[in-house]
Amino acid sequence: MAVFLGMAGVMITGWASMFASRTFLWTFRSWRFFAFMTVAAAVLLAAAISLGVACRLNFGKGLPEYREFMATLYTLFAAHHADLYLSCPRRAWRRTRVGAGYGEVLR
Question: If DSSP states are collapsed to H, E and C, what string results for the chain?
Fold first, then answer.
């Protein structure tokens, strides 16, 4: 985590130090697209840092239990809805023979 925060700090410091240059300031003020891209990169960098810290702080807090619960829930849902899906008249076209007419359904 310290390496990640250190690299993020170096990137933010480098980005902020560009504003000390008169040439960069002139370019930033003159070209709106360049200014937009610079600000967008800074916002995305800040978002990546904050999400990285949030992920690190929440690491190991119940992901296996959540995945097990979701697998159980999916199994129950699939078992309950399989009969409904197969008996739906709209799905009859999936059971037709190749080349068969619209009314000929395989049984």
Answer: CHHHHHHHHHHHHHHHHHHHCHHHHHHHHHCHHHHHHHHHHHHHHHHHHHHHHHHHHCCCCCHHHHHHHHHHHHHHHHHHHHHHHHHCHHHHHHHCCCCCCCCCCCC
